[in-house]
Amino acid sequence: MNNDLCLKFFLQHLICIGLIVFLALLSPCRAMSAVDPVLYTDKELWAIGNLWKQTEVAWDAEMQAYRDNLAQIENSPMSETRKKYFMQREVSRHRAVSQELGRKRHQVHQAVLNESSARAGNSRSILRQRIDASLGTSIDDRAHRGLMGDLDAAGGAVAVDNVESVLQDMGLDHLTVTDSPATLEVGAPTPWGDDPFDLTVHKQGLPAQVGSEYHRIQIENHARNHEVFVSASMRDPVTGKTRAGAGYVEVQDHLKKASGGLNSSSGDLAGNPELMQPMAKSVDKTLRVSELPDEELGSILERHGIRESPQEFRRKLNNIKEARTVVSDPSEAGRMRQAAAEIFDSAESRTLQRANQELRAREDALRRIDENMRRLDNVSDTEATRLRKERLQQSYQQRQSALRQEITDSRARMQATAAANGRKPVIELTGPETPAGPTRMQQLGSGARRAAQVYGTVTDFTDIGHLGQTLEDYMEGDASLFDVARQGLRVPPLSATPVGMVAGGAETIVGTSKRMGQSIVDARDAHLTIRQANENNLAAYLTQWEIRFRRAGMDPGEARAYVAASVEAGNLDVLEARAEALRAAGAEIESPELVIEDGIGPDGGKLYMLYNLGDVVYGMGESVYSGAAYTIRAPGRIVESWAEGELAEAVLEYDSRTAEADMRVQMFRALRNAGIERDKALQAVNEGGSFMRSVFQEARELQEQARLEQERLEAEILDLEQRINRILSEINRLRWMDITVHTTPPSPMNIPYDPDADEDMVFEVEISLGGGFQNTVNRIRHGIRDAAGQDPDVSVTYEISLPGAQETEPGQWLAEIPAVPEAYPFLVDIEVNISGLDGHFSFMQRTVRRQTGDVLLLLAAEEKIEFQESQYSFTDGDYEPVHAVVSNLNPDSTYYYYWTFMEQDGITEIPAWKLHAILEDSEEPQSFTATVSLADIRTGLLLDEDQAMVHVHPVEILEETITMDLFENRTYWTTATPFANDPTVRFPEATIIATPGISGIQEEISEYSSDWERLQEMLHPKESVEDIMKQHMQAELEKMGMELSEAQMAQALQMAGGLTGLAGEQGIEPPDLLGSGYVYPGEPVELDLTVSVPMPPRFRVMFPSPQGAASLDAEVRVKHWMLSTGFMYSPRVRGNNAATSISWVPEPDEHTESFSLELITNYSIDFFKAGTDEPLVEDGIPLRYDPMTTYFTLGFFFLPLKEPPGTLETD
């Protein structure tokens, strides 16, 4: 009979369990996150995760297509030139896709960082600071590489710890998370390189004191981390000042970043942006920080077979960095790697030398301060000097401390970064020598730096950096032991165990749950009281050790050092061992006792808790009463904790009678939830057997009816869900959409300089928000109304921090700003509140907070600038300087001057600029406006401007005016100038206009006179000019004993004619007659010449080079010119449309009756790289040919000498 009862009971037991499991499977359930979302809902986080998964798929497809396209181009039969063109075009297309997908990844990154920061809670602690993307290129920058680039961010260590849980809530737990002491990296290698998620978050913790062991360990950890730049903290972001050795440390940082490319093979490096891009980027930055001269860089490139100028090499590095260029040739990649290695060696040597100089300068300054402090100590303390002496001492001490910290910190960073790269720099130590080994105090102060778990199960570090600082303060006498116990340690009860392990024998589940629920508040209060008591006990215990050591003869510093060492080691043996040594030496010392309090629950049972697990206690109590905390899985002794297992499995003893009652209650509730009537459910639980099976069948039928009804509703629900999801997406968009700030007038605003202006003068400024934020809010309001059938309360509030700003419309303000030169920063806080929804739609209620801001900058335009003349008059083609007059300049500021005229503009560092006056119609005068602006170099802001009218007149063309082309004598330009390197050069048109004039002619030459006949022979010689030149040339050659063949003579005559400008289409032609007439002895003759000199445009030439023909731009500039008659020369003349003259008095014995008039021009030639303003450089010097000279024969004058009429002839 007993066996039958046992069997019946066992069968009923199994049926109950089966039904519970079946009904549980029918009920929907989801995993719960360990941390509830803060900024986003579960669905929003999941949607953001799906956005990244879609981006991943798109990027995988793009990478496959990109690799296939590159391979197809590489293997095609096209020429190398065409291959290079199509490959560059493919790289540009791929980069555009990367940037587009990068903007989607940016949304995911921002959501991860924002949610992680919010979960850390609001606190001023550096450990909980929000995570911001503070490093690298902005996503809005055209140079950003999109998914090919990464994101560097920084935030508090507590906030960073939340990143992994946020990724899990997004469904992105497939991403690899690498946690290190300095960074947390998200991303894993793919077939294409690094994971495109590529997020690196730098942890910010409590700063360690410079010179401490923690300081050294922290720097060494950062130096070994490839994502941490140790040099970043050696620069002041506000002032731009750097610490000693910052350049050397930065070079080591870049070397660390480039190590992947430097240590790879040429084949691996070619075509792999993940290796080439960091190397190119690091080399580019190293060149800048080391200030490596172009000459040295050029030599390095030449040694490694790189046929590029330093400027071209730098541009190539920048293009590789921005993914605009791909190096696919292994040979080229190998040359770049070798050159990069030598660049790093040279940069390291230069910056190390500079760092040692900087350290010596700091140490010299420190020695001077020490000397000044010693001198100050000798100054007598009188009433007149005491206050000043104290201030000087305080100032010297602050500077002394800052210099010592800088020297120590710089050396530590230089040594750590060099060691991480396997380098061994010789860092000069010019200060006092370091002892050969650590002293006993140093061993105690910094020896045992491990974070012990317990201090005999008492002490536990909360933060190693914080504890180290607190201990150092204590050893210096600046902190109490109570601070050590409270701030640096956890002090749990001694017998701390997981909640639920209860001393005192077996209890039932229900009994345990009730006791926990009843004692939640008491447990919390007991926890606080116990912790405070234990803090006091630990502080008193350590204080007793310090007092007893000092009584035994130790000095205070040594006693505190031993106490600090024991805390760091988490080991009482340090104190006990020292006490034993003192006892052995004859000292009387007794060890104190450490008392630790345990907690007692209100019902007499002990409740053991861990510090910082108060939330677990509250969660346990709430979960027990809601039925969600525990789920009985078998009629045994196993009880599992909720969520992700905050506590270990607890093994509880309970009796089977109570367990069976609990299961019957759960089975009854399950049947009721399945739709079974109350009486039937109660009967099934009590009787079991066939009646339970019939009830079970009825439950199945009810479930089938529910399923059909559910299918009918699902279609309606699906449509509603899609509409709601669109609304939620719009709400989510509010969190990261761009919000722009517009000001009218735009900032910066210039305040006119007016000494009589009213002091209360104000500026009216309109401020408005752009970006479509308000329109998005309106769409959300209409969408909720259509989907929910309810009229939501959607409110948007804007608050601006600018005092006195009046809101004219939502998101628009009118502000009055005092007309005082100042920066007025302001923030705009935006809050969108969606409420007023009830029922099933209440979950859409949200509060979205955003913040944006800007700076209104008012500048006092005290500086003034004016043209030296209000109007200018120039002649067409003039290239003349114009000047401006400036006043009220600040001697501490640096300015530049911006000039505009027609389509010309320029920037100068002095108030002068050369203006080129050119008429659109060379025959009609025109007037134009010239503008000059004064700007501050530091801010780039325009401070004042002025305008002047410029009148341009045509060149005056007279009957005697001669026009010629500067380049018309092509023989000269292609034989006697550098353009001989390019016989096919096309010279531009450049017209010279010359107008000669003469005064002092007394009479005309009468026709058929002997002088007339001589003039006709000159104009129409019996022998050609060529024959005359040939005769003269043969006579000169005979004098030198030389003889030329006919062919050589013809070539010599051709060259002579070309060089003199006399060669024409018909051979060497005689010059034109410019004027003729009689001049009288003793009567002055004056010859003048007005010349308009052109400024030719640059033109293209091809010069040979070892690599082939090089394309260059040539610039010819006439610097000055002069007039020559062969027997007289005028002064040199500069400028366009200028004039000069020469005069003489004819005398019978010295008169020359016929002479040529020549224009002699001195010019320069500069060469530039084609299409740029970059001059061609040879041996570090811009290539310039200067001075160069060319001659233009304008014609000749015939001026025979004649006595005036009425003069008596004498023998």
Count up the helices: 29
What structural class do helix, strand and pairing data support?
Answer: alpha+beta
> What would the principal axes of the Cα set say about the shape?
elongated
Q: Which radius of gyration do the C-alpha atoms yield? A: 46 Å
Strand order of the largest sheet: 1-2-5-4-3
- Domain module tally: 8
Strand content: 15-25%
Main sheet properties: 5 strands, mixed
Tell me, rounded to a whole number, the average pLDDT.
Answer: 73
Helix content: 40-55%
User: How many strand segments?
Assistant: 38
Low-confidence stretches: 1-34, 429-467, 488-527, 597-662
Question: What does it look like?
Answer:
The protein has 1211 residues and is an alpha+beta fold. It contains 29 helices and 38 strands. The protein folds into 8 domains: 82 residues, no CATH class; 171 residues, no CATH class; 217 residues, no CATH class; 178 residues, no CATH class; 125 residues, Immunoglobulin-like, CATH 2.60.40; 90 residues, Immunoglobulin-like (Sandwich); 170 residues, no CATH class; 48 residues. Helices cover 42% and strands 20% of the residues. The strands form 11 sheets. It has a 5-stranded mixed beta sheet. Strands 19-25-24-21-22 form a 5-stranded mixed beta sheet, with no helix packed on it. The longest helix is centred in the N-terminal third of the chain and has 48 residues. The N terminus is likely disordered.
How is this fold's topology laid out?
Blueprint: H1 2-26, H2 42-74, H3 80-119, E1 132-135, E2 151-156, H4 157-160, H5 163-169, E3 177-179, E4 183-186, E5 199-204, H6 213-224, H7 246-262, H8 266-269, H9 273-290, H10 294-303, H11 310-321, H12 330-377, H13 383-420, H14 440-446, E6 460-461, H15 464-475, H16 481-488, E7 489-490, H17 509-518, H18 520-551, H19 556-569, H20 573-584, H21 614-626, E8 638-639, E9 650-651, H22 656-673, H23 678-687, H24 689-734, E10 740-744, E11 749-752, E12 762-770, H25 773-788, E13 793-800, E14 806-809, E15 812-818, E16 822-835, E17 846-861, E18 864-867, E19 871-875, E20 879-887, E21 895-901, E22 904-908, E23 912-916, E24 926-936, E25 942-953, E26 962-965, H26 970-973, E27 991-999, H27 1010-1019, H28 1025-1039, H29 1046-1060, E28 1063-1064, E29 1067-1068, E30 1073-1076, E31 1085-1092, E32 1099-1103, E33 1110-1124, E34 1138-1144, E35 1154-1169, E36 1177-1178, E37 1181-1182, E38 1184-1198
Parallel strand pairs: 2-5, 11-17, 19-25, 30-38
Antiparallel strand pairs: 1-2, 3-4, 4-5, 6-7, 8-9, 10-12, 12-15, 13-16, 14-15, 16-17, 18-20, 20-23, 21-22, 21-24, 24-25, 26-27, 27-31, 28-29, 31-34, 32-33, 33-35, 35-38, 36-37
